[in-house]
Amino acid sequence: MPTVGVKRDALFKALGKTYSDDEFQSLCFQYGLELDEITTEKQMITKEQGENAESSVGASEDIIYRIDVPANRYDLLCLEGLVRGLLIYQGKIDLPSYKMLAPQDGFEHKLIIKSNTSTIRPYAVGAVLRNIHFTQDSYNSFIDLQDKLHQNICRKRSLVAIGTHDLDVIKGPFVYDAKPPAEIKFQPLNLDKEYTATELMDLYSGHAQLKQYLPIIKDKDVYPVIYDNNGVVLSMPPIINGHHSRITLNTKNVFIECTATDLTKAKIVLDIIVCMFSEYCDQKYTVEYCEVVQADGSSNKYPELRYREEVIQTAKTNTAIGTNESGKNIASLLSKMCLQSKPSNSGKTIKVTIPPTRHDVIHACDIFEDVAIAYGYNNIVRTLPKTNTIAQQLPLNKLSDLLRGPICQAGFTEALTFSLCSRDDVSTKLGTNIESVKAVHISNPKTLEFQVCRTTLLPGLLKTLAANKKMPLPIKIFEISDVVLKDVNSEVGARNERRICAVNCNKNAGFEVVHGLLDRIMMLLEVPWNPQRGETGYYLLESNDPAYFPQRCAEIICNGKVAGKIGVLHPNVLTQFELTNPCSCMEIEIESFV
């Protein structure tokens, strides 16, 4: 959940009432939020950077409320939206009506998209906030909302990048184009000279905040860029805005542009920004549209600020929540949640108007949820289900639990290891190449330790052994868990497979220990030993695997199919996992026995 930090005094001033910490926490809970932490700016900086952080010098001692908001409530990511939502919930103000106006005479808000952008960031939208009045707090909130949206719905600028500009220092129509990086040259925000786009990529490669966005366009042949009618660069999305059009406290007219790879997300982001900060305009809750001309000559006006209507059934709403409210009461509850509602004359249906700030409402169940929040979850009477159901354990989980006890009785200790591991863990360390492993790769791994989903339980157990080398020998551990394998026949391209893996670590290999455990497991599964190697029962078949010692590895054949492997691990594998004592292991899938 995103966390919004707001100054307590500014929040109470906007709400028109001073609350105690417990009272405000209760109000947040009623509205579906959570007061996560009460702190100060100095404490936050010290916590992040340590007690000797130089940046904490001069930091504010104002009390800050850090409030957790639902990830889909983009309208609550700033002080303005939070205050507006709480005041409407308390019935202190009416729902605002957002309006789109034509540009004032003599102004041309037009954004022309060139065909070159189709190869990198094909979409763009725009709008203008006219005669806006910033204070230091509202200006900070304006910048902070953009950052929150970038990290949330914009997916770190990969889907949408926001640019804001002082309209009075630039001239339309604006041009959104894509050019080779060597041809783009401008003065970036807060820098004192011009750079080419190529130079900027090198300059920002060590920047604490901007370096994470460079890969979005760095390897492309062309970079996106927005010019005004005089050829002044407004921005090079998604990296940096131009210094010439920067906004300040004195800015009166703001031009907002959003470039995107997802047009729907761009429209949502633009709606949220203009709705939240149009309250500071001379004409409150109004915004001037920008005409966006596509490469094919078609045009659209943004922001859309679209209101839509949904009709819900009163009876169905009550059934879903567990209440018995009239249509009039449900409409009143929805209006408290910024959803203007009106019951029909019969009260059987309710017409709900979805404003442009509530893009999270996409289904009737979202409306039901808002009714439940406004009604109060604690006020819903607990009832027993009207139908009797008998729950039962998933057969595969039941089998897993039944096997755990006997394996423990055989002297093995159960381990629980990570489902994610590094690429080397399932390939190089086991003597094979990653290309030959049917591994599911993580597209954006945060660490080198978690790059792929494990395809075998063995690396996790060997890491566990390495972390417990000081324990007395023998060390016998096992795990019953899922591995993830690529499968083109699966709906999602991968499938889970439940396996048992056991490792015996001792001064000698102890192959007979894991072999004995295999025999015990097969006895419990009622699968007989078949020395004739027929289609029923199980037997061992000599096999070669680089993870195992030569001629000390065998496939476990069960009912005519390969079910797993057993053998003595190769010394190279033990070295890779920093183990010095011999190990034998057994790994077998158990889903086919359910």
Main sheet? 11 strands, mixed
Q: Round the Cα radius of gyration to an integer and report it.
A: 31 Å
Count of structural domains: 4
Number of strands: 28
Strand content: 25-35%
Q: List unreliable stretches of 5+ residues.
A: none
Looking at the structure, what is the overall shape? globular
CATH topology of the largest domain, by name, is BirA Bifunctional Protein, domain 2
The CATH H-level superfamily of the largest domain is Bira Bifunctional Protein, Domain 2
Class of the largest domain in CATH? Alpha Beta
Number of helices: 15
Mean pLDDT score, rounded? 91
Q: Decide which structural class fits the backbone.
A: alpha+beta
How helical, in percent, are the residues? 25-40%
- CATH architectural designation of the largest domain: 2-Layer Sandwich
Distance separating the two termini: 39 Å
Pfam family, one: B5
Subunit structure: Tetramer of two alpha and two beta subunits.
InterPro entries: aa-tRNA-synth_II/BPL/LPL, B3/B4_tRNA-bd, DNA-bd_dom_put_sf, Phe-tRNA-ligase_IIc_bsu, Phe-tRNA-synth_IIc_bsu_arc_euk, Phe-tRNA_synthase-like_B3/B4, PheRS_beta_core, PhetRS_B1
EC number: 6.1.1.20
Short description:
The chain has 594 residues and is an alpha+beta fold. Strands 4, 5, 6, 7, 8, 11, 12, 13, 14, 15 and 16 form an eleven-stranded mixed β-sheet that branches. A seven-stranded mixed β-sheet has the order 20-23-24-28-27-26-25, sandwiched between helices.
Notes on the protein architecture:
Helix 9 (327-336) packs across helix 10. This protein has four domains: 3-89, Phenylalanyl-tRNA Synthetase, Chain B, domain 1, CATH 3.30.56; 99-191 and 209-302, Phenylalanyl-trna Synthetase, Chain B, domain 3 (Phenylalanyl-tRNA Synthetase, Chain B, domain 3), CATH 3.50.40; 308-377, Phenylalanyl-tRNA Synthetase, Chain B, domain 1 (2-Layer Sandwich); 395-593, Bira Bifunctional Protein, Domain 2 (BirA Bifunctional Protein, domain 2), CATH 3.30.930.10. The chain is α+β, with helices and mostly antiparallel strands. A hairpin with a 7-residue loop joins strand 23 (475-486) and strand 24 (494-505).
